[in-house]
């Protein structure tokens, strides 16, 4: 029992130190690393710092905060993730928020995945997050939407092939429809 109390005290001290680093460190890289580590702590210790980090001036820190909130879970984390998905100005943060949203609210994320598939962004980070979500949680509607993105960039074709190799009949049919496409990645 004493060992458990000592471990809990060390964990509380560590969470406090990480929270201070996440909100007060001069360098965004340090803040981002601290925020990422906070995702492994209980919500009561991590949530206040993660909530603050979700509003940080650095997109690197906000991205780490959203990912940690996705790992943390809970109603407040879901609210913050949704805010980042719909309102953050960084494509990277929005992509991380979409991934976290799928993790936190799989049933409610269907329409957001569809939205992500059709959202252009620098280096396709938002579409790529949506494609990964379809691979992880395919349904016929999402696979059909994925198939409509085949000509936009290379990843949807690869995702359809992965799903087809798993026996997804909607993906097999979609691949059959695009066999004659002349773009190299298709």
Structure notes:
By secondary structure, the chain is an all-alpha fold. The model has no long low-confidence stretch (mean pLDDT 93). The longest helix has 23 residues. It contains eleven helices and no strands. It is elongated.
Instruction: Label the structural class.
Output: mainly alpha
Number of strand segments? 0
Low-confidence stretches: none
> Which oligomerization state do the chains in this entry correspond to?
single chain
Helix content: over 70%
Element-level helix/strand string: HHHHHHHHHHH
List descriptors.
single chain, elongated, mainly alpha, 186 residues, 11 helices
Summarize the entry for a quick read.
With 186 residues, this protein is an all-alpha fold.
Lay out the secondary structure.
Blueprint: H1 2-24, H2 28-38, H3 43-53, H4 59-72, H5 75-87, H6 91-104, H7 110-117, H8 125-136, H9 140-147, H10 155-165, H11 169-177
Helix pairs in contact: 1-2, 1-3, 2-3, 2-4, 3-4, 4-5, 4-6, 5-6, 6-7, 6-8, 7-8, 8-10, 9-11, 10-11
